[in-house]
Amino acid sequence: MPRPTARVLTLLELLQSGGTRTVAELADRLGVEGRTVRRYVDQLIDLDVPVESVRGRYGGYRLAPGYRLPPLMLSDDEALAVLLGLVAGRRAGLTTTEHTASETASAKIRRVLPKRIARRLDTLLEALAFTDQPGEFDTPDAEVLLTIADAVRHRRPVSIRYSDRDGRRSERTLHAYGIVAHAGRWYVSGKDARIGEDRTFRLDRIADARTLPGSFEPPVGTSPAQRLLSAFATAEYRHEVTLRIHGTVGQIRAHLPASVASLGEYEPVVGEDRATERWLRVELRAERLDWLPPVLASLDRPFVIERPDELRDLVNALADRLASYARQV
Question: What is the helix (H) or strand (E) element at residue 245, kind and residue range?
Answer without folding.
Answer: strand 239-247
